[in-house]
Amino acid sequence: xxxxxxxxxxxxxxxxxxxxxxxxxxxxxxxxxxxxxxxxxxxxxxxxxxxxxxxxxxxxxxxxxxxxxxxxxxxxxxxxxxxxxxxxxxxxxxxxxxxxxxxxxxxxxxxxxxxxxxxxxxxxxxxxxxxxxxxxxxxxxxxxxxxxxxxxxxxxxxxxxxxxxxxxxxxxxxxxxxxxxxxxxxxxxxxxxxxxxxxxxxxxxxxxxxxxxxxxxxxxxxxxxxx
Length: 227
Ligand SMILES: Cc1cc2nc3c(=O)[nH]c(=O)nc-3n(C[C@H](O)[C@H](O)[C@H](O)COP(=O)(O)O)c2cc1C
Known about the structure:
Blueprint: H1 17-20, E1 24-25, E2 27-32, E3 38-43, E4 46-51, E5 54-61, H2 70-78, E6 80-85, H3 91-96, H4 107-111, E7 115-116, E8 125-126, E9 131-143, E10 152-164, H5 177-180, E11 183-185, E12 191-193, H6 206-213, H7 216-226
Antiparallel strand pairs: 1-11, 2-3, 2-6, 4-5, 5-10, 6-9, 7-8, 9-10, 11-12
The structure holds flavin mononucleotide.
């Protein structure tokens, strides 16, 4: 089959687009508004985009009333947000926190999650989540789109603090992915979690392999070795 979005209809009973780009990690983003009320919402149009310095982005469509989402408003107003890892164990709370609560409603209270104080930024972390990034706002790229929800705010932030629960690490100091089962979005109303990990040897140079691993230390060591 072939279709052209907005031009030639796919003809399927459900739109396939989001099911083609899978799995998408979930940016479970906590923010605080200018009045001091905390906010928490999941964003699966989320990624890390570079590692030195580490930068993440999430992409917020407008809400069903055609307004910018609370998370975007809060990040731009305060310059700060926190990314919390969503896991299989936390899947119900992740979903509940996506309800379209009005601005000023604290999703931590609505979900029964526990706030953990951040060190550098004001928004709290989700204590039940095993890994959190404290982030400072960099910029928004606003892309116009169709209909009430189509216009999107792509929000970039620099990771300035990383919290990893001791229990999330293996004895040899790696993140224990199979224990955490990070949650990810598929298409439709489907989700997955990581239950399988395999390793491939890298064909790249030592410098490139350091980039693949996201390790500035390994890149620097490889450059020093070369010179
Ligand atoms: C797993 C999951 C992923 C989501 N990903 C996105 C996303 O990438 N972009 C978006 O605009 N909305 C996304 N949503 C919907 C938002 O979470 C929802 O609109 C929420 O009410 C926004 O809250 P806020 O206005 O407090 O920011 C997602 C919902 C769920 C359940």
